[in-house]
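Comment thread on ticket #2218

A.B. wrote:
> Attaching the input chain for the structure job we discussed in standup.
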Amino acid sequence: MPVMRRNSRGSSLVEVMAVVTILALLASVVGVAVQGVFPRARNQAWSVSMKGLQGACDVFYALWGSYPVEGEQPVPGGPLASPLDLQAEGGDGRPFAARLRSLPSSDAVEAGLARDRARLYYGVNYLGRVFATTAPPPWLAETPVFLPEHPGGIPLFRVGIAPVPEGGGPTGGGSGGSGDQPGKDEGTDGRPGSGEGTGEQPGSGGAGVSQVVLAPGQVAPVLSTGVEERGGALVPTRGPTLSPHESLPVAVAGAGAAVLGGGLYLLGGQGNADRILYQPSPDEEWQLLPTRLPYDAGLATVASVGGKAYLLGGTTEAAGRGIWVYEGGAGSLRQLSCTFPAPLVGAAACGHEEKVYVFGGFLGGVRSAAVFVLDPETETLEQLPASLPMALVGAAATAVGDRIYLFGGETVGGWSDRILAFSPRTGAVEDTGHRLPVASARLAAAALEGVVYLLGGAFGDVRNPTPLNTVWSYLPDRGVTRLSPALSFGPGRWGAAAASWGGDVYFCGGASGPTVQMAQVVRFRWQEGRPRPVVTLDAQLYSLGAVAGRAGDIYVVGGTAAVVGTDQVRRVTLADGKVQILGFRLPRPVMNAPCVRVGNRIFVFGGRTMLGYVGERLNQVTVIDLDTGTVARAQSLPRGAEGMAATSFRGRVYVFGGLADGGPTDRILEFDPVSYSLEELSIRLPSGRQQVAAASGPQGIWLVGGRAESGLLDEILLFDPVEGSLRQVARLPVPLERAAAVTWGDRLYVLGGMAPGGTSARVLEVDGEGTVRAMPCVLPAPACGVAVVLDGNMYLVEDGGVVLEVVPRPRMVWRVDGGQVGSWRLAEVRGSGKVELNFRSSPDGLIWTEGVHDPASLPPARYLEVEAAFVLDSFPRLERICLLHR
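C.D. wrote:
> Ran it. Output below, let me know if you need it in another format.
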């Protein structure tokens, strides 16, 4: 074997050049990768400082109720400005000590901040977002401003000030008007427009006159709360309601429903035997028709296509093989020539594109997974090659788009929670991956505007089932959402018949037990101004704590899903409806404990570990740091207590009452969220009480209702920590405990709560004078919970896990630019119902006048703010507002 020897001579020129070339290539790659690293790092440091400033401003707002400014008083609803020294760094996290870190000149140019170390101005828009800019106020919509996520700069309107788009703002005499005389039509508030008698037309222009039209698709609002666009107009958003309707003449369960010729028909069912019930319109009484079914169909499988209803089996006798067609009215039923291979009972059926599809059931007394298709035109019945993934009885079926969806059902192993999808085009059955919140069967299902609504069902012990009283909605792209309302005014039910009719869903009859049929009919509908569910938690939690977060989040702390409390903290993101269980845990499971957020920390006061006599009342104050994701014990209460009320006011957190081992307490505690010190105040509540609702307002802290040893309380107290005073300012219409209370705008709102006669669904409004008014918008169902305000919207986190958006006074706000200083005039308002208008003007977009109802009484100004408040008890509809500026 030859021996390999190392070459001892030097490298050749070619080898050296090769090495140099390789090194050069590597250097170029590294150079490209490294280029910009240091500027990016400094920009990132600047962004972190900006986030720190946002946090400091949030702390300041939580402590003092306003954002920090310099040289002027805060202006509600407007941006606030203050110069900030860029050279200072560090600080202890308190307002005015947190400083932006300056960037070197070259990096400042790259970031779009400045060419040198110039002074930055920071502002806080009406949503509480902090921005930085080199331009001193007054600011315009196109002023470049800088956010941590946009260090290169974006227009100011992106963070709260809306521009007037081309063609939608002042046109100087454009053609956007209707040609009607201004003031000819009455405004939605019942008064004529202010242009009456001038002879000017909204679209006619004229020397020095410009026009602004506020209408859907014209000028983007800077604030929209509880308002949506529908049918070319602005109306209050809709929420679900479930209400009793015209009762059936007989109790019935398991009937089949069909809408034929404008009327609603119920065929068969337990209690109805071989009869047909008919309602010509929702406003008329039900009739019992003389037409009879060919046999008693206790579980009637019915589907309709082409204006005809088809009765598919429904009895274990030989007649149950037959298929019968019914055209409505007093006409008789006709049997088709095709039959099932064996008697069919308990199947699900749905019509789709002139054919009827039948799923599962008992076929010849045996559970079936078969899928049949009926062609009414040729009167042929075919069993498809595809089958259900398991034998299924008592499922609910309805069509959405190009698919038929099956919900729940009973299998050999018990109830099913699966949602299956069948494609009539391919004949395939798929598991959607979505699940019902509760495994159940014999739900009532109907589709409306692409959404499936499900009521009730049987669950629990298959031999002795329990009826559900829930309402669920299903969207194929999102899954199941548990709606509020529940069926709170009646018992749960299974086997109800469901049909979409006249824009609503009707659930007819049902059974609350094996031998208990019902005659009740309930109507599910969406009504304007009703609170609407926006998110459903992943668990049905009760006695939970909740606070509003920063970026569109709500944090849910603790609560109980059964008897034992939970140690979990959930983050609910309203933008996408996601619910996330955070990675850290509370020191112990906790329920019935109030929570308060100060800055980016949440403080939890006391609570209980579980229900009953074995549960321990806690005495700890727990702090959750959302920035670091850590949980620690901040302080100890004088004694363990649950059911306290807590809220922050001007830099301190105040804790009221609670139930201790010795009974309800009348103590008021003051907690410092900075030093974690705790002090018991000398002032006391009028009596020991628990389950009080507390909310901070400009005047002090409102305390609503509660329970004392004497019973429920109807008092509304106002506590002023500055003066150390406590006085009663109003009384509730009925005593309440466990209500939700929150200040929204300049008023206090009380939502739900436990009253002597049961849980309340009312929304009460309390103004600064102590006047209590029941609002026309009520909760979809009676509820208890915790209310928070987030990004100008009010949300109720209900016991049970549904998050409702509640808007007692829907409103929209626009800000428009006239281009120059001039007078403003209201030329026209189109709509119906009552919409209250309020106007403010500003010469610079920063300082605004007091609000007035007629813009003609405002001083000449360049900018105008228009607020439209919708009065819910008048079915308001706003089509357009026309303004003139000269």
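A.B. wrote:
> Thanks. Noting for the ticket: The two ends are 105 Å apart (CA to CA).
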